[in-house]
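input
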Amino acid sequence: MKIGLYFGTFNPIHIGHLIIANHLAEHSDLNQVWMVVTPHNPHKQKNTLLDDYQRLHMVHLATEDFVKIKASDIEFKLQQPNYTVNTLAHLQEKYPQHEFCLIMGEDNLNSFHKWKNYEFILEHHSIYVYPRLNSGTIDSQFVNHPKIHKIDSPIIELSSTSIRQNIKNKKNVAPMLPHKVWDYLDTTMFYKK
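output
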């Protein structure tokens, strides 16, 4: 099975994440998309994150009606901070029957050369890249690379940061979130303080 790994802190997961994941699940050669909840992204401050299991729960709520999209807590069991190369090695060892690919936005491809062991990742895994409005300049080594597949998916410019800020400022963000996630956030009062 060919599985696309969509990494994120999902703090919170929003409809933009789901639109991208569903587009890849339905319009590429990927059999499934795993939404990998990252406990600690090395590029983000941990103290800005909601509890790992609360974010995982929201991803479960958001994806439970999608047959080809799964929530994954695989990084919860790994050493932190999490590096993608370590996660990929762990997954390949645990599920040798699957082929794992990365899903990332063009903005992340722009800084991919700064990732730990990025050459090794690119040698052993395909990367599916979705468009972003402000992606910057892509490093020439990644242009027309045989392992990098640009996906013609909708451009979604939603941000979890702005959603959290809007919730704090008592703005209605319900249209930006999966219905069950909005209900959960509204009940728990998360991000309101």
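quick obs: The CA atoms of residues 123 and 147 lie 8 Å apart.
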